[in-house]
Amino acid sequence: MDAAPGGAPVRAVGQPDDQQDAAHSQAVTIAGVPSLRLFLALWPDDATRRSLARQQQEWGWPPGAALVPPEKLHVTLHFLGAVPATRLPALRPLLAVAGQSFELGAEGARTKVWPGGIAVLELAAPPALQELHAALATALRNQGFASELRAYRPHVTFARKATGARPPGAVRPFAWRCDGTWALVRSSPREGYQVVAVDALR
Questions:
Q1: C-alpha triplet 125, 126, 130: angle, nearest 5°
Q2: Where is this chain compositionally biased, Low complexity type (predicted)?
Q3: Mean pLDDT for all residues in the chain
Q4: Is residue 156 part of a domain?
Q5: Is 27 within the bounds of a domain?
Q6: 3 vs 179: CA distance, rounded Å
Q7: Is the CB of residue 58 less than 8 Å from the CB of residue 117?
Q8: How many domains does the chain have?
């Protein structure tokens, strides 16, 4: 995975310290928080994020559609839900999970509105992504966390409340180079998505 933007002193899976210091300006700590709503994700670099934002802009959106802000676009790997802060140490074994490099792009991708008005860019799942997803699922189950049992469908959510949205005729070419790493992300109703400082798990 290409890292999140920024400059906070955090440690990301599979990245040297000097790379991630330039990678996580939005990283947050977790001290004093009783529980966090967490998920694991592929977090795009700035160039990929701009490309995804252009894809998003080419849709015809109905009134009231809730577009995901460009800085929050991502691919979810596993959704953990509300995790008590006391259980965060159980996520430490996941720090050892990193996959092979792979690329996501327009080949095999398609735009679609899922039931419930969720507008997405569905992506093809290369073997290395499937292996990373499976390795993380195993690590989660080994630590007592639930993991998704349905077939994995990698996608970027562009909007919610988007019933009636008109997708573009074709997916614009793009290349998202992923290095096999991932981000731990907190979802907060007030603050949106924030990359969590992985050092907090140590």
A1: 70
A2: 1-14
A3: 82
A4: yes
A5: no
A6: 9
A7: no
A8: 1
Of residues 24, 78, 133, 155, which has the active-site annotation? 155
**Poorest-pLDDT segment among 1-10, 122-131, 141-150, 186-195:** 1-10
Residue 135 structural domain: 36-185
Residue 48 domain flag: yes
Task: Report the C-alpha gap between 177 and 31 in whole angstroms.
Answer: 33
Burial 160-198 (b: 16+ CB within 10 A, else e): ebbeebebeeebeebebebbbbbbbbbbeeeeebbbbbb
pLDDT for 169 equals: 86
CA distance 117 to 126: 27
Taking residues 29-47, report their average pLDDT: 82
Please tell me the predicted confidence (pLDDT) of residue 58.
96
Check which CATH number belongs to the domain holding 76 and give it.
3.90.1140.10
User: Which pLDDT belongs to residue 92?
Assistant: 85
3-class SS string, 43-57: CCCHHHHHHHHHHHH
Q: Which of 24, 74, 78, 133 does the annotation list as catalytic?
A: 74
Instruction: Measure CA 175 to chain center.
Output: 16
Helix (H, G, I), strand (E, B) or coil at 155: strand
Q: Is the pLDDT higher at 8 or at 65?
A: 65
Q: Work out whether strand 175-178 and strand 102-105 pair parallel, antiparallel, or are unpaired.
A: antiparallel
Are the CB atoms for 175 and 168 separated by under 8 Å?
A: no
Contact 159, 61 (CB under 8 A): yes
Is residue 29 domain-resident? Answer: no
